[in-house]
Write a sequence for this structure.
């Protein structure tokens, strides 16, 4: 149980275009999803926290108009990188936290496999 | 906000030796400390965690110790094997693993034959 998927697993795009990354919890309902960015050989940096049905909470220094997050259902959150530039190239990882109804899924974050974004 | 420092950044050991990775945190309100193993290009995997009401926890070859007073915690891997080679991250949060995690900078562990 507790499987989280991401799509696509990798994407290459031209500078100035927008890219959407999906994060899905496959076998549990996720009230909260987290989005991280990881540059090569660096740590995971939390970008934002999204709760189903409400606006995402962004970490300091993360542009909310550039990184649009939507968490419209209990199993799906999307991250859209708008007007992508080469400096946005990174490994984007989501994680999901389950509902309060299940202690197993509520007290742990389950990570997706990540999406490698390359902006040319 | 919370700040987590991790040392060393790289660690090379011989197979069968022990490896120790250390982390310090700044926010005394943090009460949950997980450790993750990440292989290249893969997702982080939770390998062990500890809560602030416990000083030590062990799971087979892996153990974690916590010193709340000094605000530091350590990962101990005994009898290292080549498959232990990966990047290890410590993290800290308030309230548990389902809450916001602040990660350390990572340690690249290499287990040599």
């Amino acid at each position: 149980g507790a499987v989280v998927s991401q799509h696509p697993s990798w994407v290459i795009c031209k500078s100035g275009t927008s890219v959407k990354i999906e994060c899905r919890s496959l076998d549990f309902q996720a009230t909260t999803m987290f989005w991280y960015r990881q540059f090569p050989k660096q740590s995971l940096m939390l970008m934002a926290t999204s709760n189903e049905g409400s606006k995402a909470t962004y970490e300091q220094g993360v542009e909310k108009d550039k990184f649009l997050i939507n968490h419209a259902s209990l199993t799906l959150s999307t991250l859209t990188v708008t007007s992508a530039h080469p400096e946005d190239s990174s490994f984007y990882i989501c994680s999901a936290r389950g509902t309060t109804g299940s202690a197993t899924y509520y007290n742990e974050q389950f990570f997706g496999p990540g999406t490698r974004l390359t902006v040319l | 906000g919370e700040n987590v420092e991790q040392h060393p950044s790289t660690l090379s050991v011989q197979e069968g030796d022990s490896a120790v990775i250390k982390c310090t945190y700044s926010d005394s309100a943090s009460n949950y400390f997980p450790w993750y193993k990440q292989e290249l290009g893969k997702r982080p995997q939770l390998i062990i965690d500890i809560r602030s009401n416990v000083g030590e926890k062990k799971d087979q070859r892996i153990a974690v110790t916590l010193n709340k007073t000094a605000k530091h915690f350590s990962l101990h891997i005994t009898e290292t094997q080549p498959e232990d080679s990966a990047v290890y991250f410590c993290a800290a949060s308030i309230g548990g693993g389902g809450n916001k995690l602040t990660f350390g900078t990572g340690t690249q562990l290499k287990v040599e034959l």
About this structure: Residues 64 and 75 of chain B are 5 Å apart (CA to CA). The interface with chain A takes residues 1, 41-46, 89, 96-98, 100-106, 108 of chain B (CB under 8 Å).
